[in-house]
Task: structure prediction
Amino acid sequence: MNEQLTSTWEILDEAHRVLRTVVNGVGPDDWERPTPCAQWNVTQVLQHAAGDQRGFAATITGSGFPSYDPFAPDGHLHGEDPAEFAEDGMRAAAAAWATVAHDAADAPTPLPQGRLAPQIGAGVCALDAAVHAWDIAAATGQPSPLTPELARDLLAVAQEIVEPLRQWGAYAAVVPAEAGDDEVAALLRYLGRDPNWAA
Result:
């Protein structure tokens, strides 16, 4: 497997750790299971997540965009090892974000909003990896990989960028809160997910 890289952005490195752990926990018979992303199975969510990491990286570096549409994944890895496939995307994102100074005025992103404060941009890249890790975990019977601390940090990022993206279907409507919700549930509900979803 490719060497793992760190990005200098703690939130992104933690999100990558979460996605890596969940992908490594998927069983060989789990890749076609349904997920909280209603139109996609586990393989398609992985393709989307890895492709988005490449998209963030390529927007920074100017090259290396995914060879497929991450928003129309076909569900086939064409012989590639899933863990290596995910790692390649995370490695590209980590390497790209490592070139972005923490005190930079802004950084390019593939979002419709374009350039964002670097801490928000890195956070959105992390949000994508971590929340799709939760999707895969939920689909395959793994425990939630999201810690309260990571969820709290990701929610702060999400509240900066999600609302304009709902109109394009990138996020579903907020799921109403329930008594007893913790930080993880609050994040998932804000992103249009039911924290109690099960396959």
In short: The chain has one domain: 10-159.
